[in-house]
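ESCALATION

Customer reports they have been waiting on this structure for their group meeting. Please prioritize. Original submission:
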Amino acid sequence: MNIFILNFCKFNKKTKLNLKLFFVGLFLVIGIQFIPTTIVRADVIVQGTMLTDKEYYELVDMVPEGYAIVSNERYESLIRQRATTGLFHQAHVQNYGWLPTYNISKNFVGTVGKGLRLEALKLIFQNMSTNISYRAHVQSIGWQSWVSNGGIAGTTGRNLRIEALQITTSGKFGVFYSGHVESIGWGKWVSSGATTIGSGQFIGTTGQSKRLEAVDFILYEQQF
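Update from on-call: job pushed to the front of the queue and completed.
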C-alpha cells in the first residue's frame, strides 16, 4: 500500500484525476449493491376507498362513455344529503340478521374480518334519477331472478350464503362494485354499466362454495 501511495504521488495531475474518478465510480457501484430497495406503492383515496394507482386507472378506463367517477368533493356533498339522497344499502348477515340501512357514507355493505356470510341484500338509489337491478348467486340455489330498487336478493331464515352478485344500473349514476370473498379477500372491480341482464360480469365466485362477505361501491355520474 505504501509503495502504491508513493507511486501515486509521482503521477501527473491528469492521471491522478482519472484515478480518483475511477475509484469514486468503483465505490459508488459497490455501494449501490448494498442499498436496500423498496417498492413504493402509491395509493389514492376515492370516495373513502383506498385504491392503488393501478386500480384507480383501471376504473378510469372502465367508466362508460359520457360518465365520470364522482369526485371526492361531490361525494362529500352527497353524504351531507344522506337523509334523503344517495345509494342506500342494507345487508342481512349471518348471526346479525338485517343490519341498519346505510347511505354511501358507509362504503361497503356486509362485514369484513369476521368470517360471516352475506345472506341477503337490498340496494336503492334515492332521489338520484337512477334505477338499480341486481341478483345473487346463492348456495344450493344458483342464480336467482333479478330484483330492483330495494328488492331482496338472497334469502333470510335459511342460513344460505350469497356467493356472487350482479348489478346493473340505468340513469344518471352507475357503480363500480367489488366483493370481499372467503379466503380470497377483495376481488376485482366490476362496472354496473358493463353488466346487463344475461351478461357474464359479476363479483364473487360460483362453483367454489365460498361465501361473499361484503360489497364495496364507487359511484360514477353522467356528465352533461
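Sent to customer with the following note: The chain has two domains: 2-33, 43-222.
Escalation resolved.
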